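Recall the central idea of this unit: under ordinary conditions, the amino acid sequence of a chain determines the structure it adopts. In this exercise we apply that idea directly, starting from the sequence alone.
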Amino acid sequence: MGFDFEAFAAECPSALIIVADDGAVLFANRALASLLGLGLSEVTERPLSALVPSRLHPSSDIRWVRHLVEQAGPARRLEWPLLHRARSEVQVEWSILAGHDSTGRALAQITFNHR
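Accordingly, the structure predicted from this sequence is:
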């Protein structure tokens, strides 16, 4: 029996996202869309910068994955808000797993726990 990670992640009750180094959203699940009051396609069509308050964005010389890893430190956790459709902030804990795809592109898989 094979394991279909994408099907599992899509239906997982935990809010998940995978982002590229440039902040492009490569994958998001319904739980994250629901948390943000958005449709799934609205989440995947936006960059991470549209989901995170601007005060938490990386400086122009630092890429998203590096920024998240540096901010999270060895615990790989952040307590940063996300932006809800209503432009209010949703308090969540981020668990970050950084890695690379088969081409060497830096990626981050993030699980969000609503506070």
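The chain has four helices and five strands.
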